[in-house]
Amino acid sequence: MTSPFLRCPGCGGTVPCQQHPETTDASKPHRACRLVLDLEADDRKALADSLYNMADRIERGEMTKGVSGGYSSGYIYELTESDRPTHAEYMRELNAYLDAAAAIRATTPPGEAR
Prior knowledge:
The protein is an alpha+beta fold. It folds into 2 domains: 1-30, no CATH class; 31-83, no CATH class. 32% of the residues lie in helices and 20% in strands. It is built from 2 helices and 3 strands.
């Protein structure tokens, strides 16, 4: 699942970035428990109700991957859970990723691919 809101950490362009192909969603670190969600609703209340119900289903272990829809909201989701990375491993991966992004930004001329 891709998002129009993902930005290249190097230049701020949309992902996948033509200038920095290494900045795909797969290249960034992820935590052990991850929910990828595309949720749409008719209004804020319907959105909040969907999130509340999802939280309950996640806590009970009833969500993995699927599609759900109703009168006022609908969503596509994928919940993955693993023992790894641990918090310490994730933080090391995140810091390495951010350092690499800073190096890309340092060599990208201002305003390019923004």
